[in-house]
Amino acid sequence: LAKTTQPISMDSYEGQEVNITCSHNNIATNDYITWYQQFPSQGPRFIIQGYKTKVTNEVASLFIPADRKSSTLSLPRVSLSDTAVYYCLVGLINNDMRFGAGTRLTVKP
Amino acid sequence: DSGVTQTPKHLITATGQRVTLRCSPRSGDLSVYWYQQSLDQGLQFLIQYYNGEERAKGNILERFSAQQFPDLHSELNLSSLELGDSALYFCASSVGADRNSPLHFGNGTRLTVT
Question: Residue A31: its chain B contacts at CB < 8 A?
């Protein structure tokens, strides 16, 4: 069954680096990997997108290995305001665009 | 603010009824997507329109339909509502038709079917 898999939840402390991995064994050849952040009562918000290797922007980095069957979102020095649910979105070989189930990140003081 | 507007924010209705959810995309975006988010199913893609035409279809029930109008706003029609249709419905927009274009989400319509 083509799908994307993420950890259900993660805990961290302020100032730490957080890495969230998404597995997507059946990613389509030409599709990108996109990550979104969602706060309660809001729609998901775009964080970062990549095709392969490493992408970095002002809020996060995205690491994608050569086989592209997984990706890791890296949040440097998290703060309390980074507490949210993080989703990966991937195009699969069955032509489906599939969000992962989401990883609930809790940042503690 | 994503620039995507959804109305209404909340909707409470009874089983068997029909409702219409409305979405105005971000200025300049030609694609509109509809997603359903429930606790047990996560974010489920329903349907995509690009410049007025249906572009892609996901797990959309036959009781549900959508359209995109010439001014690019979109409506999602849900009919013969069941208790299980209670969920958050999100609209998202993007510039192009390419499914890899980053999505800009509205804040959703929370539908409660009683």
Answer: 99-100
Quote the percentage of chain B above a pLDDT of 70: 100
For B42, list phi and psi in degrees, rounded to 5.
65, -155
Per-residue pLDDT reduced to its tens digit, B73-111: 999 999 999 999 999 999 999 998 888 899 999 999 999
| A chain contacts of residue B7, beta-carbon cutoff 8 Å | none
Neighbours of B60 (CB within 10 A): 16
**Residue entry with tokens 């996901």:** B58
> Are the Cβ atoms of B107 and A99 closer than 8 angstroms?
no
pLDDT band for position A108 (cuts 50, 70, 90) = very high
Using CA coordinates, name the residue in chain B closest to A31. Answer: B100
Residue A102's closest chain B neighbor by CA?
Answer: B42
Q: Give the amino acid at A98.
A: R
B32 reaches A (C-beta below 8 A): no
Q: How far is A102 from chain B (nearest CA, A)?
A: 8
Catalogue the long-range contacts made by B52-58 (C-beta closer than 8 Å, 24 or more residues apart).
Answer: B55/B31, B55/B97, B56/A97, B56/B99, B58/A96, B58/A97
Contact present, A28 and B96 (Cβ < 8 Å): no
Which amino acid, residue B3? Answer: G
Three-state DSSP at A81 gives helix
